[in-house]
């Protein structure tokens, strides 16, 4: 896949992920747009690859943040049903 198509696919995916970003004051979607606009004029293949890898890193970290948020919500809603340290059933 060409670098242009990879960058466009990454941009679309990050914009989609930005809809559910937990902190509205962070303005995730605008930051992603600025990041892509800043790197719009890159011509060196290595630089483009580095920028795409950084975008993929941001995507993975955002997905991890969403997973953590879901886990914390479940832990708050069902504190005794999620196994973990201190939540073991009593031995009889």
From TrEMBL:
Residues 6-56 form the Complex 1 LYR protein domain. It comes from the Eukaryota. It holds the Pfam family Complex1_LYR. Transmembrane segments: none annotated. One of its GO terms (biological process) is negative regulation of oxidative phosphorylation. Coiled coil: none annotated. GO terms for cellular component: mitochondrion. Belongs to the complex I LYR family. PANTHER family: ELECTRON TRANSFER FLAVOPROTEIN REGULATORY FACTOR 1, GROWTH HORMONE-INDUCIBLE SOLUBLE PROTEIN-RELATED. This is Complex 1 LYR protein domain-containing protein.
